[in-house]
From TrEMBL:
Residues annotated as domain Isopropylmalate dehydrogenase-like: 4-348
Main function: Catalyzes the oxidation of 3-carboxy-2-hydroxy-4-methylpentanoate (3-isopropylmalate) to 3-carboxy-4-methyl-2-oxopentanoate. The product decarboxylates to 4-methyl-2 oxopentanoate.
Annotated substrate binding sites: R96, R106, R134, D223
Co-factor binding details: Binds 1 Mg(2+) or Mn(2+) ion per subunit.
Family named by the database record: Belongs to the isocitrate and isopropylmalate dehydrogenases family. LeuB type 1 subfamily.
The EC number(s) this enzyme carries: 1.1.1.85
Catalytic activity: (2R,3S)-3-isopropylmalate + NAD(+) = 4-methyl-2-oxopentanoate + CO2 + NADH
Keywords, sorted A to Z: Amino-acid biosynthesis, Branched-chain amino acid biosynthesis, Cytoplasm, Leucine biosynthesis, Magnesium, Manganese, Metal-binding, NAD, Oxidoreductase
Sites annotated Important for catalysis: Y141, K191
Major subcellular site: cytoplasm
GO molecular function: 3-isopropylmalate dehydrogenase activity; magnesium ion binding; NAD binding
Protein name: 3-isopropylmalate dehydrogenase
Organism for this UniProt entry: Bellilinea caldifistulae
Length: 358
């Protein structure tokens, strides 16, 4: 039975980088004797144009039945009207909710060969290898009510920040498991001095911590975490936080790596193979030019192999090939080089060295 992967190329550079990721997945499949079956569907702005909705029911149903979902990016100026009733981002939020992927894993690693690509001083970047675990299906992005206010000629708006105990516990539990398998340090980021949801968050972290005595836990206010992320990033191992804080902090962490084009992500739930996507956006300014950095998508394919298909050796091989390509000077334009998307993809493929399957 082949593994079924739904590919959602999306908008902008999404189709270009997902094609690069597919080439790498095919190389892994050829070596390990894996049978892969792809199906391609619409999401985001292109889905609005063709289907009238950012994610149709048939696409969501197919994603729910798949072994894994590979996503490009959504959005662009064409659909960037905040008053529009249908927006590309609605498809992404509906996909996350529909798949039940409550934990977004965003590894941030500084490659020695790219240490000068970051605006931070090199001594601050040595040894940076952290993992952000972001709660993905609760908080402000999904809270109800969301509404506009009209009162005495004034205009306002309401967004509700809601978290239930089970939503917090399941993502925190996963974060502890990951920290226990890494360096045994977990930073829980909240705003417990102000927000009631953060006080509940902190309470549940303390409860879960009792089951993981081998993990050192610290509670960090989000403003302090933002400062420490650039002042002493190597001090972090695993960071767990709520939805909006995680969204902001991981974009900040892209500065450490030197380019947002380098960072992958995996979104996991209690069941199913998960959702895999680079953290960058659709970059409409360079779409169609063949110059987008494919490494975030390729590294997302490595996470798909690891978590979705349980192919750890193949995942490591892809990650090592990316590191070798960077060490040997392969660069796309965002990294100061001149390689096209396809040339960078081929550089990774040429450096793949798979272990013999067991």
């Amino acid at each position: 039975m082949p593994f079924h992967i739904v590919v959602l190329p999306g908008d902008g550079i999404g189709p270009e980088v997902t094609q690069a990721a597919r080439q790498v997945l095919d190389a892994a499949a050829a070596h390990y004797g894996l049978a892969l079956k792809y199906s391609e569907r619409l999401i985001g702005g292109c889905a609005i144009d063709q289907l009238g909705t950012a994610l149709d029911d048939a696409t969501l149903a197919e994603c729910q039945q798949a072994d894994a979902v590979l996503l490009g990016a959504v959005g662009g100026p064409k659909w960037d009207d905040p008053t529009a009733p249908v927006r590309p981002e609605q498809g992404l939020l509906a996909l996350r909710k529909g798949l039940g992927v409550f934990a977004n894993l965003r590894p941030v690693r500084v490659y020695p060969a790219l240490i000068d690509a970051s605006p931070l001083r090199p001594e601050k970047l040595r040894g940076v290898d952290l993992l952000v675990v972001r709660e993905l299906t609760g908080g402000l992005y999904f809270g109800q009510p969301k509404r506009r206010l009209e009162e005495n000629g004034r205009h306002g708006a309401v967004d509700s920040l809601v978290y239930w105990d089970y939503e917090i516990e399941r993502v925190v539990e996963l974060a502890f498991q990951l920290a226990a398998a890494r360096r045994g340090r977990l930073a829980s980021v909240d705003k417990a001095n102000v927000l009631e949801t953060s006080r509940l968050w902190r309470q549940i972290v303390q409860q879960v911590a009792q089951r993981y005595p081998q993990v050192q836990v610290e509670h960090v206010l989000v403003d302090t975490a933002a400062m420490r992320l650039v002042a002493s990033p190597a001090a972090f191992d695993v960071i767990v936080t709520e939805n909006m804080f995680g969204d902001i902090l991981t974009d900040e962490a892209a500065v450490l790596a030197g380019s947002m084009g380098l960072l992958p992500s995996a979104s996991l739930g209690a069941a199913g193979g998960g959702l895999y996507e680079p953290i960058h956006g659709s970059a409409p300014d360079i779409a169609g030019q063949g110059i987008a950095n494919p490494l975030g998508a390729i590294l997302s394919a490595a996470l798909l192999l690891r978590y979705g298909l349980k192919q750890e050796s193949a995942a490591r091989a892809v990650e090592q090939a990316v590191e070798r390509a960077l060490q040997e000077g392969c660069r796309t334009r965002d990294l100061g080089g001149s390689l096209s998307t396809q040339a960078m993809t081929e550089a990774v493929l040429e450096r793949l060295s798979f272990e013999h399957p067991s």
